Each structure stands twice: as C-alpha cells, then as structure tokens.
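Contributing new complexes? Match this layout with iron/sulfur cluster.
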Amino acid sequence: MHDTLPLLEQIPFPAIRRGRLDTLQINVGYRCNQSCVHCHVGASPHRTEEMSGAVADVVLEFIERKRIATLDITGGAPELNAHFRRLVIAARDRGVRVMDRCNLTIFEVEGQESLPEFLAGQQVEIVASMPCYLEDNVDRQRGKGVFDASIRGLQRLNALGYGRDDTGLVLNLVYNPQGPSLPPPQAALEADYKRVLGDHYGIAFNRLYTLANMPIQRFGSMLVSKGEFDSYLDLLRHAHLDANLDGVMCRNLISVDWRGLVYDCDFNQMLDLPLTRGANQRVHLSELLDDDIVGNPIRVAGHCFGCTAGQGSSCGGALKEAAE
Ligand code: SF4
Ligand code: SF4
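Output block (do not edit by hand):
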C-alpha cells in the first residue's frame, strides 16, 4: 500500500489550535468483519490490534475527570472489542452521550445477535455507514451482500424504535462518495435517502452525514496507484473555505488509539501523526489526566482539506448546512 503521508506533509494548511475539549473519540481496535475499499482505518477481519482493559480504564477515568460530554466509539467494528459493552455501560452511568460507529452487518456476526437490544437499552446513538441507497454501489465499495445485510440491520434497529423522533433512539447514516469527488449537498441527499429507503424498505433514520473521502490509507493508496492523487488534492484545495476552519472536529475532540496514544483526530491517527505537547512527541491519555490542552497547536497537513472543502466534513457531517 502507498503511504500518502510524505505527499500530504508537503502541502501547507492554515495553522489551527484546539478549543475546549468535549468529545473523546476512541478507536478500540482495527478488527472488522468487513474490509471496505474506502476504509480509512485499513480495518479487516485479520487485524489484531485491540484496546486492552487497562486502557479502557484510563478512558473511563479521563471521561470522569474531564467531564467529557460525548464518547464516540469507533474501530474497526468497535463492538468486537471485549470491553465494548463495559465501556458503554460505564459511560452511560456517568451521563455521557455515547456514539457507536456501527457497520450494521455486525449484527449478523456470531455472538453479536443481542447487540441491537443492548444498544437500544443503553440509548446509544448509532452512526452507520451507508455509502449509497443502491445495492450495486454499496456492494462494490463494501463487499458482496453488504447492502442486504445493512438493510436487515436498519430494519432491526427501526423495530426497536431507532430512527423515530419520539423515542430518543438516534440513528444517523453516513455517506461518502464512490470516487475522487466531493460529496453532494447534505440536505438534498438526505431527502433522497429518506424517500428511497422509506419507500422501498420501510426504513426511517434521523440524519444523513456526508463526508469527503480522505486521501489516506486504502483510498489514498488507490489514488496514487491510479495517478489521481494530485488531481484529488487539487479538487479539495480549490474547494477549501476558510469559514470551515472554525468547525473542524479536531478543535473539540481528541482521538485515542487502541494503545491509549492521543491524536488530534482519527485521520491523524491513521497517518500516525500524534498530538504533540511541547517536547513530548507522543502523548498517552494517562498523561493528559491532569493537563489542559486548550490552545495546543493541531497537527495539520494536506489531508485536512478533506475537512474544509465545500460544505466541509466532520464526524457530524457537513459543517455548513447553509451552503446547501
Ligand atoms: S465497516 Fe467501517 S471499519 Fe470496517 S472495513 Fe468497512 S469502513 Fe472500515
Ligand atoms: S484531518 Fe480534519 S479533523 Fe483532522 S486535524 Fe485535519 S482538519 Fe482537523
């Protein structure tokens, strides 16, 4: 696989600094039941990296001490981590909003049959990848049979009350383009998704998040192989809006890897660009228990244009719905 970091580091990006920390995003491991073409994590069933119980304990201590409002759990398939349910229960007991980045097909993996009921019982917000409402496109990007399994997963969640305004059980979907293009306007695409998934499959959901593909990991490598890396970076750079700099997720979030090491965001984690603190080039979450990182400079490079191009992209989708 081509490493895109040396290319991205040559591309200047405006300097940005951290604001108040409200979200802790933890990557609890790279193992996944799928191995999607565009996965920015490079996750697959063969990856073995997994957050330990000791690191999970540090996560919970950090949440408590820093009064973190949101715990965003990602992977791989985060639910495959042995400590996933313990983390969810402990965080919810502390009144923390918990988000699970769920691939929907995980519900059909042996041993995960009770997962939807568990998530509903804990009132976990589900953020689910659904790169298209057309079967061919989803199966091409995520693997054969993934579309049908995802539909079954959404229907199970709906049956539990997910995706309806009156239940408080939030189900949001994530869209990313099939190729090296910017995502279409979020509100219009959300309306299309609601119409097609509702009419054809009786599925309801709350919001659709549109995200640009990051030129890193498998997608970045594919761009290099096809000779499309420079043109995609040009596309992102030309669509950059300074106004989006205030809303990038790294201002209020830190990303923690399976070892407990800290990054400014999940993308930086995948590029192995750690958060730095003074002379400390690699910071463990346990070192931040008594530290305040407001104002700390954020590690930026060319991939950051993926967050500021056009309507912008964050873990909550487009930054500027007004741009729609
Ligand atoms: S389901 Fe998500 S984590 Fe798993 S391979 Fe696909 S994109 Fe990566
Ligand atoms: S990729 Fe996006 S979230 Fe990550 S550091 Fe760059 S601007 Fe921030």
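Reviewers usually confirm one structural detail per submission. For this one: Residues 208 and 323 are 16 Å apart (CA to CA).
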